[in-house]
Amino acid sequence: MSGLEKALFNLKEISVNNIPPLSQNTKSEKVVPNNISSIQFTAKQLNRQAAKATKDEKIEKDKLKKAIQAGHSEIAKVYAQNAIRKQNERLNLLRLASRIDAVASRVQTAVTMRQVTGSMTNVVKGMDQAMKAMDLDKISTVMDRFETQFDDLDVATGYYENATTSATAVATPQDDVDRLINQVADEAGVELHQEMDVAQAMTSTPSKNALVEVEEDGLGERLRALRSEAYATKQAI
Predict the structure, then answer these.
(1) PANTHER family annotated for this entry (predicted)?
(2) Mean pLDDT in residue range 41-64
């Protein structure tokens, strides 16, 4: 069982029967906080996956830049689509992590107020199947249903956007692709322009050694001219 499966499966253990009165000191008082900690750990896992998506996005952008510089427009489009997909994946993972973390906070509030109800257990009956398939859309739906249980506690902060609308989408908007290509091309163009300026400056500005060689050649010619003039004068005498 993965961390995400275990964390959300543990929500089933949270019910009115598992929460003892404040005056009692039983194992259940320790179990519920542990379940909440597991849910929070799941949110951290999703945040780590989002960080990896960020790195992957940068890699795709670097490939896009090289493709643009090489003049491979079709390959550049593929890399641009990959970069945008990774960007969307990162955003959706962050949103879902935020929702799961919010659920953990709301459960903690309900535990403190001793107002967790058995209906919350019914809400998560299909959670195991969603976790086994890692179906983020189903997980998001369960989160929607779970959040409604806390309306009476006044701790729900509203609904977030669906966490997987475009997380696994292959197609990306053409406008986004074109915009990213132009952005990277502009950045690459500036860098290429700067490199060309430096190269031109190096070729147009004579080096110090070259100047010395030119100066030595001039002195040599003058010396030969003086010798020739002296020799001609001697012959005339």
Answers:
(1) CHARGED MULTIVESICULAR BODY PROTEIN (PTHR10476)
(2) 90
Whether the pLDDT of residue 197 is over 70: the answer is no
Instruction: Quickly list H helices, the chain.
Output: 3-9, 28-70, 73-113, 119-123, 127-133, 136-148, 174-204, 208-236
Q: Could you state, in order of their start, the residue ranges of all structural domains in the chain? A: 3-174
Q: Average pLDDT of 27-36?
A: 52
Over residues 207-222, mean pLDDT: 59
SS3 216: helix
| Mean pLDDT of the chain, nearest integer | 66
Confidence at residue 175, expressed as pLDDT on a 0 to 100 scale: 79
pLDDT at 85 over 70: yes
**Burial category of 129 from C-beta neighbours within 10 Å (exposed 0-12, middle 13-18, buried 19 and up):** exposed
The four Cα atoms 74, 80, 86, 91 give a dihedral, to 10 degrees, of -150
From residue 117, give the alpha-carbon distance in Å to each of 17, 19, 144: 9, 10, 17
Report how far residue 102's alpha carbon sits from residue 120's, in angstroms, rounded to the nearest whole number. 15
DSSP assignment letter at 167: S
CA dist., res. 106 & res. 147, Å (int) = 9
- Residue with the larger pLDDT of the pair 93 and 209: 93
* Cβ-proximal residues to 216 (8 Å cutoff; 6+ apart), any chain: none
What is the rounded distance in angstroms from the CA atom of residue 2 to the CA atom of residue 132? 8
